[in-house]
């Protein structure tokens, strides 16, 4: 078993959920999203996040707007659409159920 590959696959599986959760309260630009993920110890590179943001936008879960920046080029701010908010609610429920099930299984004595 390649443990690093398994850990990477586990992280990838929850990345969409985490990105939608980051945008739950307010819009954010990519660097803010990456910083939030990194601060939570979810190590992600820009090359992974940009295509994911585009896919979530194309799926109708995110929208974006451009805002001028005083410290460089304009920034693209992402936010949840109404559909994105609904999907996030469903994912929250699924995550709770899955997390509870995994905790039950992994805390059982052999």
From TrEMBL:
A Pfam entry, by short name: PadR
Domain Transcription regulator PadR N-terminal: 19-90
InterPro entries, per the entry: Metal_resp_DNA-bind_regulator, Tscrpt_reg_PadR_N, WH-like_DNA-bd_sf, WH_DNA-bd_sf
Record protein name field: PadR family transcriptional regulator
